[in-house]
Every structure is written in C-alpha cells, then in structure tokens.
C-alpha cells in the first residue's frame, strides 16, 4: 500500500461514515475521494473516481453489499474492505467469496484499520507538497458562453486531483454564476452570506464553502440574486460603493493563506469584484472561442488588460476554447487578430460537456476521458509545473479548410484592424 491512498466510503449510516473518517484521519495517509449511502450510488461513483480502497458496509441496500461489491470488483482494481457490526460467520464467508481484502467490525478500531491497509505501525504523515506559494488563476472573458465556467470548474478539479490537496474555487460571476450547477449543487451558503455583515474571517469563510462530493474542490458559490451580488462588491447599490471595504481582496487574502491554488471564475463585466480579482491574479486565462464576436471581445479585453490596467504580457494567457469548431479560424489569423499568441487550445467536446452537466460532475472526473478532459488535465499539469510549456508551432486542427473561409478571415482581420486604428 502506498503511503498515501485514495479511499471511498459506502455506508448508509452517516455516524458510521463519520467514525471511519476520523479513524482514517488518525492514520493520516488517506484522501477520501467520495462517499455514498446506497449500493447503486457507490457502484456508480467508484467507477468514476477509481479510489484505491473502498470501505463497504454490510448495511448497504439498493442493491445489497454483496451485489455492490461484486460489481465494483468486476470493473475496477480497487481493494475492498467490508465493514460490519454483525459477528456472523456467513458475513465473513461472503466477504471472502466476493474477494474482499479484509473484514472489519464497526466502530472501526484504528489499529485494526492500520493492519487491514497494510500500513506501517508508525503513523504516516499526511502527504505534503513542497512548500508552494499560493497562485490565483482567473478565468475571464468579456463575452458569455465561451467556456469560462467549464474551464474553471474542471481546472480546479484537475489540479486538486493532481496535487492531492484542496483547491479553492471562487465564483465571482456575481450575477449569473453557475459553478455550483456544474457540481450538481444547490448551495446552502454563497458569497452573499459571507459578505452579509461585519468582518470576514477564516471561520466564516469555511462556513460559506461547499465541498462537492468526490472532488477536492472547496467552492465559494456565487450569490443567488442581484442584491446578493451588490453585497459582495458594493456595485449597483443605491449609495455609491466608495468607502466600502474590498471584500473580494479580503477573501483572496484569506484563501491565499491556506490554498496553494485558487481558481476564480468570472462574469463578463469589469465590475469592482472583477477588477480586484484580476489585479490579484497571478495568471489570467482570457477565454475565447474562434468566432468573430468572441475574438473581437477578446481583442478589446486584451487592450484593457495590457494597456489600461498595465498587466505584464506574461500574466495574461489566451485560451482558445472549442478550437476545432467548424466556424473557427487558423492560429495565424487568430494570433494576428488578437495581437498575441494563443497559449493553449481546448477542443470541442459537446458530448462530454453535456454528460458532465447532466450528471453534475466535472468532466475531468469521467472514467473515459475525452479530448476536452485530456486537454484540461494537461493544462492543469502545465500550470502546476508538471509539464514543459507547449511548442509554439501548435498543430492546426482545422487544416485543409475551404477557400471561402480564408476570404472571410481576411475580411475580418482588415475590418478589425480598421476598427482599432
Ligand atoms: N469545449 C467545449 N466543447 C463543447 N461545449 C462546450 C465547451 N466549452 C463549453 N461548452 C459549453 O458551452 C456552454 C457555455 O459554457 P460556460 O463554461 O458556461 O461558458 P461561460 O462561463 O463563459 O459563460 C455550456 O453549455 C458548456 O457546456
Ligand atoms: Mg460562466
């Protein structure tokens, strides 16, 4: 057994899951990647999450534990530990027959748990990363529907998986934020509650966070309405916002103390909250799609970011989403229109985005990764420094296009150049 392993808890009794969580925490070497309270949910999530160890209670129903264990072990390489509160030889025999690694009695004894997992007797320290300074990654575009939330949610999830630590996701699309939906959540707390009154401290911050099941993402969800949005940054209040504390700055400062990686999803306007987050970001992913309107928006946003806000060019990275969509342009044309190079491309994957949204699960957690999942996970590796930067001479996924498209591109380039003049 590795020093650090991923675990999944399948038990209908919340108190029993809590007790196992605390036993695992005492061993200090596991990451709980998901939980389920029915057999069906357990089998479905284990297929997605591929934990190294599944703890499965004999109290499971729909279907029962034997069927659940059989279907999990038929489809995965996971180790199975059966939990029971019955001193029953039939249970022991059935556990053996389905191929369980061990049988433990509830409430679980830490020493027995250690033995079952084959861990060394001395407690193993929690996996630690080399000391990292915190990094804020902001996904922005002044146009909606280009993929900011798709990127933010999946990048946060992918990075968390890769580093084995929690990543904070801040939904600063204050009026129309949808990050929670991508996790299938209806948030109980949002940024509006966090900013309702008084100072913001660490305890309030954590109280306001959602923890989407099966991810290591700690989400601060967007407010549910305009009034809530106004509470966060003071915009659109009947009285002007001057003098109000910058709550977004405070939140980011608190997040930076605890999280090596913070991903910020954004709306389309340069409102106060956006400007604070853009200022504080280490990297801004300017998201665009390869169509006329998005490219125009991206170009004028780049002008604001680089010329009006004076950010260093290296701070702003263009991400071309749906790069192979059929009405796109060549890289050369896009780079010329934007006046800068595309740093990273994400392909179209309508099936994966649809499935993920319907299931309320980030697509990077899907058991059969598609091209978009691969690309976002690759971008995650790139930003955390696990991959060398991509070659400048990126392949042209849309090479071999019809001539009339080229004529349209050239018309677009000259019209954009005229407008910028
Ligand atoms: N690479 C992609 N391939 C296919 N569909 C995508 C892709 N990226 C985003 N989408 C879809 O486009 C829509 C808008 O995406 P979203 O991330 O909400 O954009 P934004 O946050 O910029 O408004 C969503 O329905 C999403 O599933
Ligand atoms: Mg969005």
Structure, explained:
There is one protein chain. The chain has 421 residues and is of the alpha/beta class. The chain has 2 domains: 5-117, 3-Layer(aba) Sandwich (Rossmann fold); 135-415, P-loop containing nucleotide triphosphate hydrolases (Rossmann fold, 3-Layer(aba) Sandwich), CATH 3.40.50.300. The chain is 43% helix and 16% strand. It is built from 17 helices and 12 strands. Strands 8-7-9-6-10-11-12 form a 7-stranded parallel β-sheet, with helices on both faces. A 5-stranded parallel β-sheet has the order 2-1-3-4-5, sandwiched between helices. Helix 4 links the parallel strand 4 (79-84) and strand 5 (102-105). Bound molecules: adenosine-5'-diphosphate and magnesium ion. The site of magnesium ion has 5 residues, from helix 6.
List keywords for this structure.
Rossmann fold, 17 helices, 2 domains, 43% helix, alpha/beta, 5-stranded parallel β-sheet, binds magnesium ion, binds adenosine-5'-diphosphate
